[in-house]
Amino acid sequence: MSTQTATGATAAKSGEVLLDIVGLSKTFGKVAANKDITVQVRRGEIVALLGENGAGKSTLVNQIFGLITPDIGTISIKGDATPVKDPKDAIARGIGMVHQHFQLVPVMTVAENIVLGHETVRGGAFLDLAGARAMVRELSDRHGFAVDPDAEVDDLPVGTQQRVEILKALSRKVDLLILDEPTAVLTPQETDELLGVMKDLAASGTSIVFITHKLREVLAVADRVYVLRHGAVVGEVDDLTHTTTTDLATMMVGRSVVLSIDKPPATPGDVVLAVTDLHVKDDRNLEAVRGFNLEVRAGEIVGVAGVEGNGQRELVEALAGMRKVVAGSITLAGQDLTRANPHQTHHAGVGHIPEDREKHGLVAAYSIADNLVLNEYDQEPFAKSGLRQFGAVRENAVKLRDEFDIRSAGVEQSAGSLSGGNKQKVVVAREMSFGPRLLMAAQPTRGVDVGSIEFIHRRIVEARDAGAGVLLVSAELDEVLSLSDRIAVIHGGQVVAEMPAKGADRAQIGRLMAGDH
Amino acid sequence: MGAWVARNKWSVTLAAIVLVAAYIFYALSSGTALSMYKYAWSYAVPLVLCALVGVVGERSGVVNIGIEGQLLVSAFAGFFGAAYSGSLLVGMLSGIGCGLILGGFLAWTTVKWQMDQIIAGVVLNIVATGITSFYYKPGQVLPALMPHVSIPGLSSIPLIGEVFFKGTGVIALVAIVAVVVIHIGLFRTRWGLRTRAIGEYPSAADTAGINVIRMRLVNVTLAGVLAGLAGVYLSMDSTSSFERGMSAGRGFLALAIMIFGAWRPLRAAAAALFFGFVTATASQLQTEQIINVAPQLVGTLPYVMTLVVLAVAAGKVRAPGAVGQPFVKGDKS
């Protein structure tokens, strides 16, 4: 599958083949994570691996980096087909990887993190930290990164942590840099900067393989793209000049998808939720929500846009009754919920799709049916005189399964055994089916496949049209932009701007999210 | 050195105050002071060694609540090894060997087999109590007393020299060296950087090419030597006999001391000395009949202190991030 095109924008990429993967397969239990994958990367090329969650992208790169051993197939690095034993071997052979969850020790300094594993020592054992600091400073200046070698990683913003990761790889003299979903946690500005960094690195001869499911980024930066679906390469584009996001999305999902959400204009009614001067502390006892004000009306979707860690989690938890309110008030249709517990907020009519469905949304060991009545199990018809009514529970489950397209072997199957998208549908079904006056959806489509995303979005719009107020909190700016009727930008625990979603300027919101206002 | 003092100014100030107070007390009543200090140090020695075992283990990400068992078996093996062979050296080596083997057992079960670290430690403790009680034989004696030495030069420092370096057992000297070596090791060497990394965020170390499993195995196993030394000290040096259950919870006290010492060897050593001093004070007050309470009540003092210390330290110190979690390769979160 040698695909050396000599036309278009990719004409310059005809250098040495750095990475040559042939016929790679890997099976976990009964699941084929990778099937007969063939991929080539040349020197100085940026190659995107595009695919939905669970398409096998991470499995593929983890094999290149020696974290997983392939079942069959070869991975040749610079013509050497010796199997990659472990990360150490991969590093020695010029491969660097920036993982989706940063692999940095939070309590150590930048310099300590960068030298970890290839420390310079004096006297056989003593760390040369002065040398490490100088090396980091030099490297970071050369790439224009402005990273302080003595800063503790814990104190750095996410974007800077990512630069530390990239520096870590560069300090080992990488030929091929693997980036696993590098933009998932970045603001739009940070994303643009990262894409710039990637182009610079490629221009200086470093090849880059990056995993993403964001189509815009592929078109912005990649020279070539491989599209993965169900573990196999289903498409390969060598010249992206005439490719559109719709083309890529169709390849990724295997059918045409509606990327934009069709929704009738909102008809806002009375105020459902009123949050006034809310103050909430985070787990470290620091104030995360600092004077938050917002109103949500019946029949509208209000999207809260913001970089993660700006108080969204604490805000949602406070609204759901899971976190103590320090000051301010929460009112739901005139009823004071400031000091309510989760049970009371639910019965006041708040549906809550939590950010972390594994931790707060489901009990993994319980059946789908039980999960669907988690907050109503003690109410009629699911319980009578203190005894659970399994018939009613089951009936409810079957009804919701069909209505919300939960794909499972049966309603008695444990919720933990479902895929991410189906787990989320269980949560969505439970929180929507009781007819909430306010629906709070925190990161409702995180880790969910494109098909389920479409479905969940549609249900959220339907809830709105049925007269519920919807508060959407999402780190995906695209999601906020396309789903909301009104947008509130959160920064530092406060709403820094509110605007109608129609005609909202992406770049302006990005600047507001970054605290630039 | 200047920078180090500046960073640790509170600890250094506190140490200076304590030292001055100790000298004043010594000047006022040298005989009593000296015997109390010596008692305090001899009480502290096994605690220091065991706290180091805890520090090395937890800094590597492994909770070792089996220190108590390591201590007890080593005390047993040391005493009976020496008694039966007629050689103190054989006794010491068997004690140290047992510490090492049990360290290896804990390391293998928790790191290699990913057994729950608390359960593995509890199992170790139960086995230790059972074995040492079952094979215990009364009426045995050590062939000789453990040699005590004085370090020329150091022993002539007033007070400090007398307490730590004059007529002192070899194991107590080793304890001092071990504190300094492990402290420098943890914070100044490649081994220390890697050890802290595997205890804080093992997958970061793994992706940097460090063999987390092997390093944890080696660290936890070798730390067993220190537990072995502590056991030998108990049955052969501070006393010359073995009794059933003689470790008396010292392995657990050591963990409290480790926490109070914020997982730092120097602070842990200071905390152990503090425990020793409080115990010495209580016992002195009782011998002089200044307070008149049941000896059993005085005996509970270290354990009551443990509760107080843990309550005070709670929330102020931070345990290594990955402590207690087995490392599974390829787990990236």
End-to-end separation of chain A in angstroms reads: 50 Å
User: Which CATH class of the largest domain in chain A is shown?
Assistant: Alpha Beta
Helical percentage of chain A: 25-40%
Strand content of chain A: 25-35%
Summed up, the domain count of chain A is 3
Provide the β-strand percentage band of chain B: under 5%
Order of helices and strands of chain B: HHHHHHEHEHHHHHHHH
SSE inventory with pairings:
The complex is a heterodimer of chains A (517) and B (333).
Chain A: E1 17-28, E2 31-42, E3 46-51, H1 57-64, E4 72-77, H2 87-92, E5 95-98, H3 110-115, E6 121-122, E7 126-127, H4 129-142, H5 158-170, E8 176-180, H6 188-203, E9 207-212, H7 215-221, E10 224-229, E11 232-237, H8 245-253, E12 271-281, E13 287-297, E14 301-305, H9 312-319, E15 325-332, E16 335-336, H10 342-348, E17 350-353, H11 357-361, H12 368-371, E18 383-384, E19 387-388, H13 390-404, H14 420-433, E20 438-442, H15 450-465, E21 469-474, H16 477-483, E22 486-491, E23 494-500, H17 506-513
Parallel strand pairs in A: 3-9, 3-10, 5-8, 8-9, 14-21, 14-22, 17-20, 20-21
Antiparallel strand pairs in A: 1-2, 1-4, 6-7, 10-11, 12-13, 12-15, 15-16, 18-19, 22-23
Chain B: H1 2-7, H2 9-28, H3 30-59, H4 67-85, H5 88-112, H6 117-134, E1 148-149, H7 160-165, E2 168-169, H8 170-188, H9 190-200, H10 202-207, H11 212-238, H12 250-260, H13 265-287, H14 295-299, H15 301-313
Antiparallel strand pairs in B: 1-2
Helix pairs in contact in B: 2-3, 3-8, 3-11, 3-12, 3-13, 4-5, 4-6, 4-11, 4-12, 5-6, 5-11, 8-9, 8-11, 12-13, 12-15
